[in-house]
């Protein structure tokens, strides 16, 4: 798997050095950003539907793998 850089430090998969530690990465176009998918189904979403989209620039894409870190209990 290629090295994936991420600066979203409040993500469950964020790792030291701004790296993503997720086993799979799901990237979608913004038009599908609010699709009813959960992070545990992200890999299946892209593989099973067979849909393909086109983006003309990176700002039209988003990472659906994001999962907020669990709050530390005090």
Automatic annotation (TrEMBL):
It holds the Pfam family DUF1540. This is DUF1540 domain-containing protein. Residues 4-66 form the DUF1540 domain. InterPro entries: DUF1540.
């Amino acid at each position: 798997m290629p090295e994936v850089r991420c600066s979203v430090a409040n993500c469950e998969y964020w790792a030291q050095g701004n790296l993503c530690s997720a086993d799979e990465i799901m990237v979608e176009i913004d038009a599908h950003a609010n699709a009813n998918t959960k992070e545990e189904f992200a890999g299946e979403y892209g593989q099973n539907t067979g849909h393909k989209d086109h983006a003309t620039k990176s700002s039209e894409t988003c990472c659906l793998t994001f999962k907020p870190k669990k709050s530390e209990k005090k």
